[in-house]
Amino acid sequence: MRKIARGILLLILVTLLGGICAFLYEYNTIRDEHISVAKLYVVPGEANEESLRAKDGGLKEDFAIVFKSEVVISAAKQLAGTSDDIEKYLTVKTVANSNIIELIVSNVDQGTAKRYADAFASTAIKTTSIIPAESIQILSEGTDNNKAYKPGLITKTALLTGLVAAITLVLELLVGLFYVSFRKIPDNDEYYDYEKEHEKDKKNKNKLNKNDNYMAPNVAEDVFEEVDRYILASEIESTKKDESETKEKASEKNNVITEEKLEEEQEKTEEEKIEEQQEKTEEEKIEEQEMIEEEIVEEQQEEKELTKENQEATDNEVSPDEKIEEKREVAKEDKEENNKGNKEENNEEVKAKKKFKIFGRVKK
């Protein structure tokens, strides 16, 4: 493969160099030429309009045939005062969609080109007897601009470049064929040894079954090792790709699940908070009602106790002023104790104190 690539590269380089050399050669060998253009205006007339008009809207090529005829060229030679074959310098061009004909003359000298163009124009206007036209007039005489050009420079350069490329391609093919057919085979060429042994095996029919699968030992081992390495590498790459894809998918799923869980937890926490607030408000209401009921029960008990004390006082002949003071003191103590501790314990202590005081006063 490298040999083929080298041959192609060599062909490209030689072709480029050949093209450059061909351009320089043609540029220096081709002489500069000048152009002089004379224009004629043709009036075909109504009767001859269709016969003289071409498909592109211009005039037909009949004018070029007439202007290059021997009659016109001989008359132009006489006017130009030359015996040279001036027909080869002349080109006749009809302009599309118009009645104009251009007489283009090329020559090495600008003056001679203009003289030949004027001679052709002056003789062409006299050909109305040959061409069925109403009149032919000179629209402009030959130009004199001194602009030189090299005719056929590009085409000749392209031809020489193609010739160089073809020659180099043929030479490369011949060199390659000679190298393959007449090269000296080295002693350690395993592939060549394999070919020789394989040919011997074909001649010996009895050894065909044994030696059909023969390969050079080192070559076979290297090939199998490379194949195994390639297979292992491809399998490892495929497993890595699969693992990476599975990890990405699992991470995406986990992210989705965590987001869903967070949303559910947020919704649950909000609902739980609302429920807890509602439960707290309900518990507070229940506690207030219980407190009110307990206070009512305590007041009822106090009234009962007061009625009992009044009866006992009447029995023991206690003065009413002392009873009132005792009641006030007992009521104050009850309120203070109720504000400090638990209501049930405070109620029991207050009752005990009341009984103690009442019985103490009674004893006194």
Structure description:
By secondary structure, the protein is α+β, with helices and mostly antiparallel strands. The protein contains eleven helices and five strands. Strands 1, 2, 3, 4 and 5 form a five-stranded antiparallel sheet that branches. Helix 1 runs antiparallel to helix 6, helix 4 crosses helix 5 and helix 10 packs antiparallel against helix 11. The radius of gyration is 65 Å and the shape is elongated. It starts with a helix and ends with a helix. 12% of the residues are buried.
Short précis:
This protein has 364 residues and is α+β, with helices and mostly antiparallel strands.
Main traits of this protein?
5 strands; 70% helix; single chain; 5-stranded antiparallel beta sheet; Alpha-Beta Plaits; 11 helices; alpha+beta; disordered C terminus; 364 residues
Topology:
Blueprint: H1 2-29, E1 33-43, H2 49-52, H3 62-67, H4 70-80, E2 90-94, E3 100-107, H5 110-124, E4 135-140, E5 148-149, H6 153-182, H7 190-203, H8 208-211, H9 217-316, H10 320-340, H11 343-363
Antiparallel strand pairs: 1-3, 1-4, 1-5, 2-3
Shape: elongated
What is the assigned CATH homologous superfamily of the domain at 33-148?
Answer: EIF_2_alpha
CATH architecture call of the domain at 33-148: 2-Layer Sandwich
Q: Rg to the nearest angstrom?
A: 65 Å
Describe the biggest sheet? Answer: 5 strands, antiparallel
In helices, the fraction of residues equals 55-70%
State the separation between the terminal residues, measured CA to CA. Answer: 137 Å
Number of helices: 11
- The helix/strand series, from N terminus to C terminus, equals HEHHHEEHEEHHHHHH
Instruction: Please report the total strand number as a whole number.
Output: 5
CATH topology of the domain at 33-148: Alpha-Beta Plaits
Under CATH at level 1, the class of the domain at 33-148 stands as: Alpha Beta
* Average of the residue pLDDT scores: 77
Strand residues, percent: 5-15%
Content-based structural category: alpha+beta
Spans of at least 5 consecutive residues with low confidence: 207-219, 354-364
